[in-house]
Amino acid sequence: MGNKYVDSAMQEAGKAREKFNKALEIALLNPPEVEVGTTPHEVVFTENKLRLLHYYPLAEKTSSVPLIMIFALVNRPYILDLKPGRSVVEVLLKKGIDVYLIDWGAPGDEDKKLDLNHYINRYIKQVVKQVKRHSGSDKVSLLGYCMGGTMSAMYTALYPDDVKNLILMTAGIDYKVEGTLNLWGDKPNFDVDKFVDAFGNVPAEFLQSGFLFMKPIQNLVSKYVNFYENVDNEAFVENFLAMEKWLNDNIPVPGEVFREFVKYLYQENQLVENKLRINGKYVN
Known about the structure:
alpha/beta, 46% helix, 10 helices, Rossmann fold, two-stranded antiparallel ribbon
């Protein structure tokens, strides 16, 4: 009788080991390639590393005002078009919205001096001009995500006549709140001038490690336990791999705009206090 229980335990242990090896291979050692950002589109404008994507319609247009999606500078924007059935872009297109998206590209060392003035008064202003021309509309809607949301709010404050609607997702406006990033970015804890002067552009690895260690147990332990438990669920694995591709596809951030975000927003909260000036003009 004892051998029966031992044999059963050994079989279960063998199955668990096989499942663990399968999960390890898929999640970490040799993850299969996954396609992301597949909604059909065309590139209608480029400048430096920036590309402006225009998505082909999936339904009859319901609004004459085009929507420009402005993403953060720290990640790739395809999280908004991750895969069919898990795509913000796809949902908007099916609602009859005319969708454009800014892909900032990956900055090189030659871009380390790009600042808020360049992003707001050059890049976003040019994109708005191109979308107006391409769509035939005299106004646009802006949907800004994270840093892109903060810059969208800045642009709208400076050029209100251009913007019909402003939609913000996880965008920082009032930075005088408690949180891990705010604690790390406090002046006593982080000398942003020394950091940027030393590195130029902010390394992608620095940014990624920061995000990981905001929730270390969730990001480094619980996530993989959950994957192990669902490794035989094909849909779960596909979604996991697509998210992992995006999470690990980080890009550098130009040093000067990073310096300004940390100093003027995180440390001094100038935007919400109406003290921020871009190219000499108050962002109010």
